[in-house]
Design goal:
This protein is an alpha+beta fold and about 240 residues long. Helices cover about 15% and strands about 35% of the residues. The chain contains 4 helices and 16 strands. The strands form 3 sheets. An 8-stranded antiparallel sheet has the order 1-2-5-15-7-13-10-11, with helices on one face. It is globular. The two termini are about 25 Å apart.
C-alpha cells in the first residue's frame, strides 16, 4: 500500500470517529517527530502494539478486502505462553460497507464484537473442524446478545448498533459492513493476542501490508513504532536525509 493512501484512510477514519463523538488517545495523532521526542518513554506501547493498524491483507484493493483499527490496550505473551500483567485487549475497528475481513479463526483469542454505531455489521460463522479447517455441517453454538444461540453453518448474523456477539477460538468468521447502511464503528474486547501468530485464515493472506513510501507518514502504524527497524528506516528517510 502507498503511504499516501494510508495517511488519507486514517484521516477519513478520524473524521468518522469525530462524527460519532469518539475520541482516541493523544498518541493517535502523534507525528514522526512526536514519536522521536517520546521514544524513551514508549517502549511498552511498542511491545504491546498499541495504536493504528491498517491492512488490505495484501489484496491490492483495500475498499473490498481490508480493515482499519486502533488498538487501545493490550498485554503481551510471555515465554511461557501466558499473558504478562494483563489478560485483556481492547480495539476499535472501522468497517466499510462491503469491506470484507476474510474468513479466519483465532488460535487462542476469545473476543466480544460490539456494534457501537453507524451501520450494521454482518458476520458469517462456521465451526472449526478437528484439522483446523472450516466445518460446514454442524450447527454453530454462539453467545449472542448475552444468550446462547444455535445457527446453521454459514449463517450471516446481522449485528445492529448495540448488538454484540462472542467469538470463541473454534469459530471461523468473516465480516463486513452491510451495504446501504454506512460505515460501522465496532469495539473488540478480547483476551490478549498476537496478530502475528494468532490469526488463521482459510486462504493465504498477508496480515501486515508492505508499504510504498511515496510521502512522509502523518501517523505511525503499530508495527513501526520506536524500537522497530521500520521506525529507524523512517527517521533515516525523512529526517536525517531531509
Amino acid at each position: 500500500m502507498k503511504r499516501s493512501k494510508i495517511n488519507n484512510l486514517i484521516d477519513e477514519g478520524i473524521t468518522f470517529l469525530n462524527s460519532r463523538n469518539y475520541t482516541l488517545p493523544p498518541q493517535a495523532s502523534w507525528s514522526l517527530e512526536d514519536w522521536i521526542k517520546n521514544r524513551e518513554k514508549v517502549g511498552e506501547i511498542t511491545k504491546r502494539r498499541i495504536g493504528w493498524d491498517l491492512t488490505d491483507f495484501d489484496s491490492g484493493d483495500y475498499k473490498k478486502t481490508g480493515l482499519l483499527l486502533y488498538t487501545l490496550s493490550n498485554g503481551f505473551i510471555g515465554q511461557d505462553g501466558k499473558p504478562v500483567d494483563q489478560p485483556f485487549s481492547n480495539k476499535i475497528l472501522l468497517v466499510e460497507e462491503n469491506q470484507v475481513t476474510p474468513m479466519h479463526h483465532h488460535r487462542s483469542k476469545m473476543e466480544d464484537i460490539i456494534n457501537l454505531g453507524g451501520g450494521n455489521l454482518q458476520i458469517k460463522i462456521y465451526n472449526m473442524d478437528k484439522k483446523e479447517g472450516v466445518e460446514k455441517y454442524s450447527p454453530v453454538k454462539i453467545f449472542h446478545n448475552e444468550m446462547w444461540e444455535s445457527y446453521e453453518p454459514g449463517t450471516v448474523i446481522n449485528l445492529k448498533p448495540g448488538d454484540r456477539i462472542r467469538l470463541d477460538p473454534n469459530h471461523y468468521h468473516e465480516f463486513w459492513g452491510q451495504p446501504g447502511h454506512g460505515k460501522v464503528l465496532v469495539e473488540e474486547v478480547s483476551s490478549v493476542n498476537d496478530d502475528r501468530t494468532d490469526n488463521i485464515f482459510v486462504d493465504k493472506f498477508c496480515r501486515f501490508p508492505e508499504i510504498t513510501e511515496d510521502e512522509k507518514p502523518k501517523y505511525l502504524l503499530c508495527t513501526e513504532l520506536p524500537g522497530t527497524d521500520k521506525f529507524n528506516d523512517l527517521i533515516q528517510k525523512y529526517l536525517e536525509t531531509g
